[in-house]
Amino acid sequence: MSPRILLVNADKRLGLPLGRLLERSGYVFSxxxxxxxxxxxxxxxxxxxxxxxxxxxxxxxxxLCQAVREHSAWRRVRLLLIGADAGPGAAAxxxxxxxxxxxxxxxxxxxxxxxxxxxxxxxxx
Amino acid sequence: MNYRSRFWEIVxxxxxxxxxxxxxxxxxxxxxxxxxxxxxxxxxxxxxxxALTIFALILVTLAALLxxxxxxxxxxxxxxxxxxxxxxxxxxxxxxxxPFGGADLxxxxxxxxxAADRNAEMQAGMxxxxxxxxxxxQREKNILAAILSELPQGVMICNPDGQxxxxxxxxxxLLGRPASTPGGAECVPGSDAGCxxxxxxxxxxxxxxxxxxxALDEVMEKIARREEGAVARFGMASGGGRLLGVETLPILEKxxxxxxxxxxxxxxxxxxxxxxxxxxxxxxxSASIRQALGAICCSAGLLRQPGKERxxxxxxxxxxxxxxxxxxxxxxxxxxxxxxxxxxxxxxxLIPLAAGDLAAHLGRKAREQLGIEIRWGEAPGDLLVGVDRxxxxxxxxxxxxxxxxMTACIEYSGRIEVRDGxxxxxLFWQGAPLRLETLxxxxxxxxxxxxxxxxxxxxxxxxxxxxxxxxQPAGRYLERSSLxxxxxxxxxxxxxxxxxxxxxxxxxxxxxxxxxxxxxDQTIAQESRLLTxxxxxxxxxxxxxxxxxxxxxxxxxGAVRLVNGRLLGGEVFDxxxxxxxxxxxxxxxxxxxxxxMLAGQQTVGPVLQRFAQFAAQTVLVGHNAAFDMRMLxxxxxxxxxxxxxxxxxxxxxxxxxxxxxxxxxLEAIARRLGIRIVGRHTALGDAMMTGEIFxxxxxxxxxxxxxxxxxxxxxxxxTYQARLKY
Lengths: 125, 726
Description:
Chain A is built from five helices and five strands, in the order βαβαβαβαβα. Chain A has helices at 12-24, 35-44, 61-70, 88-96, 109-122; strands at residues 4-8, 28-32, 49-53, 78-83, 101-104. A five-stranded parallel sheet of chain A has the order 2-1-3-4-5, sandwiched between helices. The longest helix of chain A is centred in the last third of the chain and has 14 residues, at 109-122. The radius of gyration of chain A is 13 Å and the shape is globular. In chain B, the strands form five sheets. In chain B, strands 2-1-5-4-3 form a five-stranded antiparallel sheet. Chain B is of the alpha+beta class. Chain B contains 21 helices and 19 strands. In chain B, a hairpin with a 2-residue loop joins strand 11 and strand 12. Classes of the chains: A alpha/beta, B alpha+beta. The A-B interface holds A 11, 13-14, 16-18, 20-21, 23-24, 26, 55-57, 82, 84-86, 104-110, 112 and B 286-288, 290-299, 301-302, 305, 307, 309-310, 313, 317-318, 321, 324-325, 328.
């Protein structure tokens, strides 16, 4: 069965190509616009990986990240954060919030797929 | 002992001696008489007893009148003449004694006045010589003072105890507050209220003591390590939300000990806000661009390698997505472009200049330096351009010099016009056009004409001015070759801080006094301290009436600081007070402060709180200070401020210096001491005059043996006027 990925993203411009890329790469993909929508989706079923785009201003992706790690049923899911902050602190902060990986925007599609592949291969923590 | 008691002591002593002598003679005479002769004498005396008594009484009365006249016309008169002569000889050589009394006294006064004239002439001659000798030294001092006063940074020099020896206008602006600023809060360094800055005051009133001590420790450690540039820097918040950068530099004695320190103070609020804003701009721009690039890259990646699984998905959506993200990126750049330009420009300011003036300046320089004649047409009168005049003129001269070299043309015509919101400066000439590739080469060259040069290329300079430059050959549109410079128009802006031209003071300005470097005992209010070395606050109040106990209130307080024998006209307190009661017309007539002027002013509580800060650590001086102090005491309940400063009263001190004079009013003393009477019955005016009087009384008090604060208070207590109570 294909791995399931939940993309939490409020940026439609990135959502469109990302969705297509994941679909094309054989993942079962669903999308949520914000943390509340994502949590609603998680309560229906837990995917193997959640990709959260932190880039749009006002994104509550970090709070979602924490909520996922604190939830007993969700905490084993892989978390990939995507952000526009290229500062050295951004990746460290993402990791301290429970993310498994942080990708700076922009990135090559192969890089994203490689990161997803590596995380899924590693399996649940 | 006063003159009156001494006189009568002598009179009674003389009478006693005369009485004893006469009695002895009478006893000797009586003993030589025969008994019959004695009986005849007794009969005669008894028979004429009434006549003899009347005669004796007349004799005593005549003697008393004679003695009183002698006392008034000679004893008191001589004492008065002596007091006035002392004034002439010590503080007011122009004072003359008004003739009074009998012919001999008048003659004495005339003789003394003539001697005073002679003395004044001699003093004037000597003063002229001294003035000439001192003028040059003073001039140099004043140049230094003028430079310091106008420096854009705040400068403050303190002795090791933190006492301010020098400060300039900027330092006072940055750290202090003017005395008339409303606000009654405690004087806390760094607070919005700010503190009073003044000569002889402590810097620790305005700056956190720990910051300075820490900075000094750092500096001394650096000196001990023999580091170069022993300077310590710290940042602090000042009143009004300002942020200040302070540099601390030590002043070392020859022995290496700390002799004082210099503080260079700069406002960095704007600088910090600018760099913070620059970071914010960069952060937001970077995030927007990365976000848009993320969408573009991802979409482009998909387009480059279309998926085989879903060939049905439309590619046009991805292309639209790329275009949309690119436009979002463009909008983000556009949004910050203008602000970034403005930020960069602030480091190399462009000054608004009339286009016509720029052209005329260029024409003049071209003629003088290159022998080139430019005939400019009329410029639009209100057209301003933002330029660095020196740099842009040199850049244009650079172009003209090369044009002349290339075309040998020395006559140009110029046109200035506004098109599409931009100022166009066009130069025309008959001859070969300037080729675009040549112009491109010139743009990359450093701007230099003769010995003058700029550290930029023409391109950099044009970019800084947001200018465009191109050349056009003669042809279809133009009869002559041309070179066109486009500059954006500028708005005339008021400068942020007005900086008046530096005017050198005739006299030593108030804001520095290196005599304070002399070490003194810092604790004031010690009665053993010399009057000449104490700091004073000379003050006066205007009131609704003369009855403090009956409900009269303060309507104005004026005060001036007096430090090291100088009245500091720049350190004054001048504040109207809302008395919260009607002001009688009679008192309005005296001080001219009508109720309309008092509406909206602060009440006595906050004003006294600030006045107490202003007068802290000084001796209060007032004329008839008992009245003013009573007014302050009455307000104590509401203000919660208790004035425990020592107080000196010029009315009483005048009584000490001039015991033979009856009139100790402010005007009478001022006239006697040769002080111009101006600004009477304004609190500040009276305080200034009282201050001048006090300064002139000091040497006269020294003649009377009054040197210290304690002696002055004691002498005041003894004077007659001290008995006047409010």
